[in-house]
Design a protein that fits this description.
The chain has 3 helices and 8 strands. It is of the alpha+beta class and about 180 residues long. About 20% of the residues lie in helices and about 30% in strands. The protein has a single domain, classed as Peptide Deformylase. The protein binds zinc ion. Zinc ion binds next to loops.
Length: about 180
């Protein structure tokens, strides 16, 4: 069990293009994934990307097996470890949704994302993942994979009248004080 420090916006390590994972099913990789889940759970995150803990690899985790208090109305997304992901939008349709980020504590913004995507990649054993998803699941994947190309969600906000502090925008939401 190791909860790692989450880097915050302004840290240059969040702006890198992450390196591809080339070794699979190693102790180091399994330990990293385990630490990432410990870290995500500790702060009730919906997902976490390796660059957020300073690891320069194309590795994201997301999903929960239970309702997340930070996103109480969100549908369940299967617990997933995704390496070297590739996202293909299916159609032009976008939808707006509120996002937060563990690297941007205390804030939420309305972000347009593709409604339907296909994503492919590998799991930690090197086995392929290939899914077609929509809605919140598609949003989480797009948010997390953005971290692998140095993009944080505020860079995707188009209407800055819909960007602010969580406790002001959503006073009733059960949110971490420092997130
Ligand atoms: Zn994030």
């Amino acid at each position: 069990m190791a909860v790692r420090e989450i880097l915050k916006m302004g840290d240059e390590r969040l702006l890198r293009i992450a390196q591809r994972v080339i070794e699979f099913d190693t102790n180091a990789l399994h330990l990293l994934v385990s630490d990432m889940f410990d870290t995500m759970r500790a702060v009730n995150g919906a997902g976490l990307a390796a660059p957020q803990i300073g690891v320069d690899l194309q590795l994201v985790i997301f999903g929960t097996d239970a309702v997340n208090p930070r996103y109480p109305d969100a549908p369940l997304v299967p617990r997933t470890v995704l390496l070297n992901p590739v996202i293909t939008p299916l159609g032009e349709q976008e939808e707006d949704g509120w996002e937060g980020c563990l690297s941007v504590p205390g804030l939420r913004g309305l972000v347009p994302r593709f409604s339907r995507i296909r994503y492919t990649g590998l799991d930690p054993y090197g086995d392929p993942i290939d899914r077609t998803v929509e809605g919140f699941h598609a949003r989480v994947v797009q948010h997390e994979c953005d971290h692998l190309i140095g993009k944080l969600y505020p860079m995707r906000v188009r209407d800055f009248t819909k960007f602010g502090f969580t406790q002001v925008l959503f006073p009733g939401l059960d949110d971490n004080a420092d997130d």
